[in-house]
Amino acid sequence: MTKRLIYALLGTLALALVFCTRDLPEKAAPGSTYKNLKPDVKYVGMQTCKSCHADVHSTFIHTGMGRSFDRATLEKTDAAFGEHAAVYDEVSNLHYKPFFRDSQMYVLEYRLEGLDTVHQRLEKIDYIVGSGQHTNSHIVDFNGYLYQAPVTYYTQEGKWDMAPGFRGDNIRFSRLLSAECITCHNHLPEQVPGSMNKYEKMPTGIACERCHGPGEVHVKEKLAGEIIDTAQFIDYSIVNPSDLPRDLQMDLCQRCHLQGIAVLQEGKSFYDFKPGMPLSEVVNVFLPRYANSNEKFIMASQADRLRLSPCYLESEMTCITCHNPHKSIEVTNRGQYNNACKNCHDDPEESHCALPLAERLSAGNDCSGCHMPKSGSIDIPHVNITDHFISRGNTRLSKTVEREETVEGNSAFLGLEILTKTTGTPLEMAKGYLAMYDKYVQSPMVLDSTLVYLQRSGAAAAKKFPVEVHYLFAKEDYAGILKRSSNTAASDIQDGWTAYRIGEAYYQAGDYGKAVAFYRRADEWLPYHLDFKEKLGAVLVQLRQLPEAEEKLEWVLRQNPKRPRALSNLGFVKVLQGHAKTAEQYYDRAIALNPDYVQALLNKAALRLLNKDYDAVQQLLNKVLKLDPEHPQAIVILQQLNAQ
User: Fold this and answer.
1) What is each CA distance from 386 to 138, 299, 367, 371, in whole angstroms?
2) Which member of 79, 322, 323, 585 has the lowest number of beta carbons within 10 Å of its beta carbon?
3) pTM of this prediction?
4) What is the C-alpha to C-alpha distance for residues 136 and 73, in angstroms, rounded to an integer?
5) Residue 503, class by beta-carbon neighbours within 10 Å (0-12 exposed, 13-18 middle, 19+ buried)?
6) Share of the chain above pLDDT 70, in %
7) pLDDT tens-digit profile of 4-27?
């Protein structure tokens, strides 16, 4: 049989990939093994899927998933540009102007003093993330290292503003985008081993195999003529999510629609999860619960909100009961959702709805629109999302009343809940609380809970050791780290972060000789994590091992030339080598990237002081004191200058 004939035959079997359109006698048995779950099965790409399933592909590419990620082009963007496309961040005193020039998108960062522009930084935008249903956020690519740009376009309100989490804490172009982030907003990029945020190949949108699993086995079997009658049998060469048991269906959706505090299992990465697997085999997800959690929730909380719903608890519904992931919600008829409600609530409607019939009909008799009201999220501004908590008490009417009353509920913290399994082990809970502290809530209460679970854990010492070091590091208890690791050699450490944390404890104690061994070990585990390499360079400077320090810092700048810390430290190396002019050039480059980088300002002031350029020294130190009014070194030097 020719390939052309086989493809034609496969085209008639596209139904196998369509959700909710057939009535199989049973779901996949819990012990059944999908052939494409084996670790060596390769992904084939969406174009290969399209060759047989063109009809599904033609609608999927218009969904939020299909439009999730792409190059920054005029075709991709949903934003409005022009004179009003500008953002000012009062805390950092920085302005941002997004614009297109010659079909390329840029963001100009600048600062004004009166009518004078005293700082400018222009960055090319390489990618736009977001379907445009809610937002377009923006990504810069520095030699494969991806960082989020500080401005986002909020499509529902048609306005530019600071990116989520940046207003009040503007880290500018330095929020690195790790695999945790990219692998939910996009298909699976090729990440450089040993890096946090460097990628070799970047897909453009979530593709078929994110929900169906790697397609290599499926394609080979179909090309070999192994055709399964999917109206009667399950095809185990590829995952059809509608065939999965309920818990595995939900795990598949929860991989990205259960935003929370994600903690990888030991030895796992965010690339390891495949459809048909229990999510907890790869990652545990935690959510903090508050007394008013029923009223306040985060953007990607659809799975959590649904699982809290009486409709979910009292039925076998899943996400695909209502959603066809191959079709955009923008073109899905409201009747599809309401019909899903009526499948269970099939008694006369008057017995279910509290609204008078006339009022209900005037609102379109819209069950889902009323009981799944639009609401804002607590983490993303300027958006309205569908609340997936379905209940009689959570209606469009009740939401309106609450907003009119503007009553602030009790936000007392109740604890951290693990959502990927029934009960987490004490060590898993300790890891969850640590991740919560690192990513979201820097509260002593969170660390107290971490300690409680660590003390309860009966895990082997080797398993607890990195968690204990992490806990002590979060507390900034460097003496405690040194005590806990006193008999540990750098070569014994089996992960980069533990090595780094111990190295930092020695560094803070002034023991640079021991610190360098652990920094080297961290660098061995994550050689493309530029923060680790910069720290190794810094401790080598302290040890006056200048040639190696210079080599490390120059390597960082070849990887990413826009690293103010590496530039400033390399400038200091040049000072120690007697190259003051070159050193100042490095300081100027660092300040051009970050005009508020205190260390670079101080280092340049020291050079200007050597040259007896007192006016420049005063200007630089005044900038330092504007950023840090209590900076002791700047105060002393200025007092000495004023006394002369």
Assistant:
1) 24, 9, 13, 10
2) 585
3) 0.90
4) 12
5) buried
6) 91
7) 433 333 343 333 333 333 444 456
Q: Count of H helices and E strands in the chain?
A: 26, 18
Helices 512-525 and 496-508: crossing angle, nearest 10°? 160
> Who contacts 427 (Cβ-Cβ below 8 Å, separation ≥6)?
453, 454, 457, 459, 463, 464, 467
CA dist 588 and 565 (Å) reads: 12
CA 504 from chain center: how many Å? 26
Q: Note whether 387 and 373 are within 8 A (CB).
A: yes
Q: Pull the structure tokens for residue 74.
A: 């005029």
- Give the C-alpha separation, 195 to 526, whole Å: 6
Rounded mean pLDDT, 486-506: 97
Question: According to the 3-state scheme, what is the secondary structure of 20-82?
Answer: CCCCCCCCCCCCCCCHHHCCCCCCCCHHHHHCCCHHHHHHHCCCCCCCCEEECCCCCCCCCCC
Tokens of 229: 């009658």
Q: Which domains does the chain have, with CATH numbers?
A: 69-201 (no CATH), 244-421 (no CATH), 423-527 (1.25.40), 555-644 (1.25.40.10)
Instruction: Identify which of 473, 425, 426 has the alpha carbon closest to the alpha carbon of residue 447.
Output: 473
Q: Are 100 and 112 in contact (CB under 8 A)?
A: no
- DSSP readout, 239-305? --GGGS-HHHHHHHHHHHHS-SEEEEPTT--TT---TTS-GGGTEEEEEEEETTTTT---TT-HHHH
Angle, helix 461-474 to helix 444-456, in steps of 10 degrees: 170
